[in-house]
Amino acid sequence: MVVSTPLIGVLALQGDVREHLIALAAADAVARPVRRPEELAEVDALVIPGGESTTMSKLATVFGVLEPLRERVRAGMPVYGTCAGLIMLADKILDPRSGQETIGGIDMIVRRNAFGRQNESFEAAVDVTGIDGPVEGVFIRAPWVESVGAEVEVLAEHGGHIVAVRQGRALATSFHPELTGDHRVHALFTEMVRAAG
Ligand SMILES: NC(=O)CC[C@H](N)C(=O)O
User: Fold this and answer.
1) Can you tell me the distance from the alpha carbon of 86 to that of 73, in angstroms, rounded to the nearest whole number?
2) Cα 57 to Cα 6: distance, rounded to the nearest angstrom
3) Candidates 10, 54, 88, 141: which one to mutate for ligand 1, based on the most atoms within 8 Å of Cβ?
């Protein structure tokens, strides 16, 4: 059997793109930034970084990549969103800014900035289904998942709130594994991408 190395894009409109590129390379994927529809068409999977979901939503519209993103996710492209990226993958935001759009793909309702503002950022050990031993979760103005639909698997909770989920080929975390040097969540995603073939 030939095991090919998946090509994983990182949505590079805004946010901590570089850290994800490094984490993916460490998790044995080939990774590159994606901004335009032509670039999206070339990748097997996509990571949506942390940053600011309202800005990301605006830029996705400006770059003409929002609809193509929705189509690829609907068609089953593996996708992983961290923090603002989790918000972008939510079918519904509880407290959106006016005009804020998401890509959708995960049947969940999210609450932005749920864990508090920037100065209330924190780190916590989080047990994630499918990963041996706790992951150091970095939470920066992090959202939590308020509720999920029947198709969504909850992978982690913190303080009684859902912070990691998976629905089919879509994975999302409230926290930022790309900032810790621990690449196990990226390895989990890379495995999902390989399994999707
Ligand atoms: N670190 C982050 O990605 C913060 C997310 C930000 N609070 C938002 O609403 O998009």
Assistant:
1) 13
2) 26
3) 141
Domains of the chain, CATH where assigned: 7-196 (3.40.50.880)
Nearest-angstrom CA–CA distance, 12 and 151: 29
For residues 91 and 79, give the distance between their C-alpha atoms in angstroms, rounded to a whole number: 14
Ligand 1 atom, smallest distance to 113 CA? 7
* Cα gap 106→190, rounded to integer Å: 19
Helix runs in 28-167, H state only: 37-42, 53-62, 66-74, 84-89
Tens-place pLDDT, residues 128-157: 999 999 999 999 999 999 999 999 999 999
Q: What predicted TM-score, i.e. pTM, was given to this entire model?
A: 0.96
**Rounded Cα–Cα distance for residues 69 and 143 (Å):** 21
Active-site residue (options: 20, 178, 183, 186): 178
